[in-house]
# Entry
Amino acid sequence: MSGDLIQRIKLLEDELEKLRSQLKESAGGDMGRNSCSPPSESSDFMMSDGNTRSSKKKSGKERPFDFSSHPRRHVALKLAYLGWAYQGFAVQENTDNTVEARLFEALLKTRLIQDRQSSNYHRCGRTDKGVSAFSQVITIDLRSSQFCGGLGVTLPENLDLGTKSKASASELPYVKMLNRVLPQDIRILGWAAAEQGFSARFDCQSRTYRYYFPRGSLDVELMADAAKRYEGTHDFRNLCKMDVGNGVLQFERTILSASVRPLQPQQVSSAERYDLFVFEIKGLAFLYHQVRCMMAVLLLIGQKLEAPEIIDQLLDVEKNPRKPQYSMAVDYPLVLYDCHFDGLTWQQEAEEVSHVLSSLQRHWTQSAVKAHVLLGMIRGLEERGGVSSNHCCLVEGSRQKNYRPLLERPCCESLESRINHFVKRGRLEREEGENGDEMIHRGKKSKHSYNASSPSGSSQIPKETVEQKQED
Amino acid sequence: MSGDLIQRIKLLEDELEKLRSQLKESAGGDMGRNSCSPPSESSDFMMSDGNTRSSKKKSGKERPFDFSSHPRRHVALKLAYLGWAYQGFAVQENTDNTVEARLFEALLKTRLIQDRQSSNYHRCGRTDKGVSAFSQVITIDLRSSQFCGGLGVTLPENLDLGTKSKASASELPYVKMLNRVLPQDIRILGWAAAEQGFSARFDCQSRTYRYYFPRGSLDVELMADAAKRYEGTHDFRNLCKMDVGNGVLQFERTILSASVRPLQPQQVSSAERYDLFVFEIKGLAFLYHQVRCMMAVLLLIGQKLEAPEIIDQLLDVEKNPRKPQYSMAVDYPLVLYDCHFDGLTWQQEAEEVSHVLSSLQRHWTQSAVKAHVLLGMIRGLEERGGVSSNHCCLVEGSRQKNYRPLLERPCCESLESRINHFVKRGRLEREEGENGDEMIHRGKKSKHSYNASSPSGSSQIPKETVEQKQED
# Structure
């Protein structure tokens, strides 16, 4: 009897495993597998380079490997990933399903690092659940083959002079090694040697996000006019989710450019509901959910529920110190498209790039064809008199029957109130600063030590850094 | 111990159930649910009309319902469905996951029929696994409210005269009743009263399929030229999967029109890999997998691996009596777009049509936005010198390193050989016909009785009907 039950358990577990990978595949799709071929496809070049599936199993036991006898190299890695199947980029306590978790599995499996803690790992940004990236950058110390040294290379101690003077082979093929074991929807696009101290976190010059959306019944010209109002240096507290508990206390950020444009150039003035547009925004650093809040307001403007001037109002934090309640835009259209760094020379393995390109093209084919199957039916129904709803489905939450203007809505908690909340709990501490201004900084009970100036008054605003919790 | 095992089994089964619906949702998507909202979305109008989810559970016990006291009405129903999450339209022995299975659950649940066997059900065509339909048509006898009679109505026996003369209310709201309980990716678009004897199976005037595909590196002008060659009445045995076992013995079919055209009109001559095209084909009736085989050959022509004249060769069954081995095109881009019937007046409930339209628009938004996220990354890589592969991923099977021309390939079994195979097993029988020709018909061991003329000689070709196993 138990035997039968155990057998049944095994069957169910196998089926669950199968369904989980199917679900992952159909939700996230691939950047690296032939998604149009039957599963037994043997010419899939991502699988012929080695078994990509085994990366999903955690290694049973670690074979001892002497990292200390190898050179280490400080490098930057450029990653692309489709965020739809993940719970975000950063490792989380309550789930294993993050991009970082898969990345570290790959780094450990390939023995490029010994462990995360000693790997000197910094990341440029964090993307939230459902958000994708084309140019996520991390810096990290990896095992190197360069016994003769090189940019970013640290040689092992007690190095034999004979080994040191050997002619240098090329560096380890980091991109190929990692892509072989990473899941299909996470790809390394290139690597760059970096000076010691170079940090993906602190040395990023700018970040660019893209948010894709269809015209529907939106007034995209109004949205384009509105988007420009975001440019410049402003206090964006009304266009983000405040993260006071993590020490984010000042909300001034600089937006270098913000635009709304059609993906196909001829289409600005046409009436075509199904044309695609992109909101592209470039800034030094972003607050938590900032781009999705900015997009949500643009969508209200596009639906003519708000005027473009609402943006100026929301950026006027003296007049409007507390954020009106509104839902942010949904996650899946958002891409961290570029993270720009000076001083890095990216090494791209052309074959790897072509592999990723081909896989993306296969995945795109499936998506685009399905979209056109749907569009064919849509047009068929429109021809029969079907009436489109004007509901914009890119904003989270239910459709409002009667629209309530932003400035008439209930507001979220003020910054002061949030600060008080955390001061009470010892996570933040108030102190009198040099000029009599109030200084607020991380308290003894906080996870990190961090200093921030007072949100009011004339104390120095700290440089925008990536220390604060990043945008989606 | 068993108790723990049983508990574990229950947990696993619950999780499997959850994953299955997630998989269904992410693979098939919806025609009727707000796919951009979080699952707790309460304003989703498809769910506010009643609990759509309970349709998935089979009813515990049937409450006795007196069908014989209600009028019956012979009707046609027009269906649309996304085939990506199903194992095909027609009910199958080895799986419950078919469109028909869901349809009959809905018909039974709404008590519109008593059981399938007595419902006088005919279907216009069968679509295969992964294939969608915009205009599938079935005819069936449904419960009616029309005690005063009407087109297609059969009154119950022993009808009380008082009941008969009551003013007629409208007919039952068939479309709304069924859509309320059908899964989201199967929708009834309309119904039509039909004369007794009207059959979706025998009275279909023409069927139109569409196959969507991206230009890639295909020569679409060559494909357009080639497609025209399919028009007319031809023997298509080399462009289908023979289904001799089911009595399909003659392969002449009439193609009324066949074309390849861009979905965006300006795009025929541009070089844009990512433009979408459609192969549209209208015929009286189709053979099994015929459209996908025709598409596969067009794709070979588009890749310049074959000349357009290959079609004329394949249609010359005297010269080429046996089909060369080649893979058909993949399933997901194919749509049974229209089934045309004379003499039906379709009743469309405008509100229902608008609901389906809105849901399709939401689903399209998600697909199209994701396709553009991918396209943005593709363009980024192309800008960095990534090289596209020319592999056409719309054909099943592995990519051939060295292309082997169709006419040089090994061939499939000939028709004669297949007939002999089934004659040996008693499923077909040979008989001498009137003119001395050989007649072949279903044998005693066959499931259906069916007569077909000889494939050779001058005996009469039976009218193209939908009796034969339909195209995908």
